[in-house]
Design goal:
Elements (H helix, E strand, L loop, with lengths): L19 E4 L3 H12 L4 E4 L16 E3 L15 H12 L7 H9 L2 H7 L4 E2 L12 E4 L2 H15 L3 E3 L3 E8 L2 E9 L2 E5 L3 E4 L8 H8 L7 E2 L8 H8 L4 E14 L20 E4 L16 H10 L6 E5 L1 H6 L8 E3 L2 H8 L3 H14 E2 L11 E2 L18 E17 L6 E3 L5 E7 L17 H22 L1
Parallel strand pairs: 1-2, 1-10, 2-6, 10-20, 11-18
Antiparallel strand pairs: 3-5, 4-5, 7-8, 8-9, 12-18, 13-14, 14-18, 15-18, 16-17, 19-20
This protein binds flavin-adenine dinucleotide.
The site of flavin-adenine dinucleotide has 43 residues, from helix 1, strand 3, strand 7, helix 7 and strand 18.
Length: 474
């Protein structure tokens, strides 16, 4: 990637349209637009959202993963190439693209410097207010603050930005992008840029799209992020022969409070304290070991499980002691003095819930070591609770209703090493590039490691911007 100081030539004055059209308004789009403009191209960025909602799921993000062989003020220790690679291998089962993955890891190293140069600020670990992280850097002020800085930088160097501009369709002919159909208010206009970069994410907000993949279960999902993720551009590319990548039937799901808004609830709606209680379905039955997952990915494990529950709803049941252990939550728990009244509040059969809790309490065995609540476990219970199995006996009792919260789908388009969109025959569309979640499944077609989505958006957004500028100037 180009690290030379940025020398701007004025945008091509004779052009009636920008040389490079960037579709989207999140991390990937801004990095692409800034890079293309710094490389000398005239650039217009089209964001479907109105200005007040600009920035897609980037608004909700807080950290990004980066390789650093030595110490840095932004992380608590080194994170070398081999370990980054091993983490991706483990998360994806080794399915990552063999060309793009080394590019991602290598170029992740200078992501913090590049962003700081573009006005973004990070929180140093010494500030003491962060979750301890050796592998990721945390944004000061989160994703919105980062977006505000990147928009200001983009505007400052002459990127034209248009809001409430929805790209409806692309026209690809004989390996070339010919036309981009854009709706703004009542008007629909055909643009003919010399190159375009699709940075407009997936289709996780599109209920019809989800229903086509998940059937009726999709009605029970909550979209954690932007409602402007309808998949128009992804769908258009796939219909015209772009190579799909990932699995259309799979999504990164986390357990969220069932009372969350249908879209845009963000990070605060997660339910995080399953080991403090038991989880039942709407029939009052347990199906999983609540003490089995301690990794930071446990919310994702539960999101996936909830997707298979009847009606895609589950209830975390706690007693007074469990409530004392639970971290603060956005919504108050539904609480009651007894199990029967709690069951009534949840519309669960009281006999079923009482029976499940009585069986669980009878199976609870203390830890081998005194003063080790984590060592409490069940004996003879199916499924077991392998850790932290304290009895549910202290009133009042409480419940959090939970649903699968969709973060993104593992469904995108294949790209080559220059981030050009590849067609089914393996050839690339010469002037159509893609960056961010729309191509992330090239690397992460399943599984996840925290902070990776942002890094993919930044690294491939920058690369796409440089390649698109090179293309229009070549
Ligand atoms: C609650 C939550 C928390 C997250 N936290 C993190 C985190 O801490 N770290 C991390 O790495 N990842 C995180 N992620 C994932 C991460 O936010 C996204 O993967 C990342 O923002 C992807 O960047 P992007 O630019 O590809 O997409 P987005 O940031 O989603 O941007 C897509 C843009 O495209 C626009 N758009 C969509 N369709 C069109 C169209 N047809 N025409 C024009 N514009 C269009 C949208 O309005 C939006 O501006 C989180 C996601 C969520 C939902």
């Amino acid at each position: 990637m180009n690290h030379a100081p940025h020398r701007l030539s004025p945008p091509n004055p004779s052009a009636t349209e920008p040389e490079v059209l960037v579709i989207g308004g999140g991390t990937a789009a801004l990095c692409a637009a800034i890079s293309a403009r710094r490389a000398g191209a005239s650039v217009c960025l089209l964001e479907q959202a109105p200005k007040g909602l600009r920035g897609g799921n980037t608004r909700h993000s807080r950290n990004l993963r980066f390789m650093h062989p030595g110490t840095t003020p932004l992380a608590s220790g080194p994170y070398p190439v081999a370990e980054f690679r091993a983490d991706l291998d483990r998360a994806t089962g080794g399915t990552m693209d063999s060309t793009l993955t080394p590019l991602l890891i290598q170029h992740s190293a200078d992501v913090p410097d590049w962003l700081e140069d573009a006005g973004v600020r990070f929180q140093p670990t010494a500030s003491g207010v962060l979750p301890a992280s050796r592998k990721t850097a945390f944004l000061l002020g989160g994703g919105k603050s980062m977006l505000n800085a990147l928009y200001a930088t983009a505007e400052g160097i002459g990127v034209e930005i248009q809001y409430a501009a929805e790209v409806r369709d692309l026209m690809i002919r004989e390996g070339r992008l010919e036309q981009v159909l854009v709706a703004q208010g009542e008007q629909v206009r055909a643009w003919r840029p010399r190159a375009a970069i699709a940075c407009c994410g997936g289709a996780q907000a599109n209920r019809d799209w989800l229903r086509a993949q998940w059937g009726e279960a999709a009605a029970g999902f909550i979209n954690r992020g932007t409602p402007f993720a309808e998949g128009q551009v992804l769908g258009s590319m796939l219909r015209q022969g772009a190579q799909p990548v990932g699995d259309p039937h799979s999504a990164y799901l986390v357990a969220v409070d069932a009372r969350s808004p249908a879209d845009d609830g963000g990070i605060v709606t997660r339910v995080r304290c399953m080991p403090a209680g038991i989880v039942v379905d709407r029939n009052g039955r347990r199906s999983h070991d609540e003490g089995g997952d301690t990794a930071s990915t446990r919310y994702a494990v539960w999101g996936q499980r909830l997707a298979g529950y009847p009606g895609q709803i589950g209830y975390l049941i706690l007693d007074a002691r469990g409530m004392r252990e639970a971290p603060p939550s956005l919504y108050p728990p539904i609480s009651a003095d007894g199990i029967t009244t709690l069951a009534a509040a949840l519309a669960i059969d009281p006999v079923a819930l009482r029976t499940t809790i009585a069986r669980y309490n009878a199976a609870v065995r203390p830890a081998d070591q005194a003063d080790d609540p984590a060592g409490w476990h069940t004996l003879g219970l199916d499924p077991p609770k392998s850790r932290q199995a304290l009895p549910l006996t202290e009133p009042p009792f409480a419940a959090y209703p939970m649903r699968p919260g969709i973060t993104f789908t593992y469904h995108g388009v294949r790209v080559d090493a220059q981030t050009r969109v590849r067609l089914g025959d393996g050839l690339a569309v010469e002037n159509l590039f893609a960056a961010g979640m729309i191509m992330a499944p090239n690397i992460i077609g399943r599984g996840y490691v925290s902070g990776l989505a942002m890094t993919i958006g930044i690294v491939f957004g920058r690369l796409a911007g440089e390649e698109a500028a090179r293309r229009v100037q070549g």
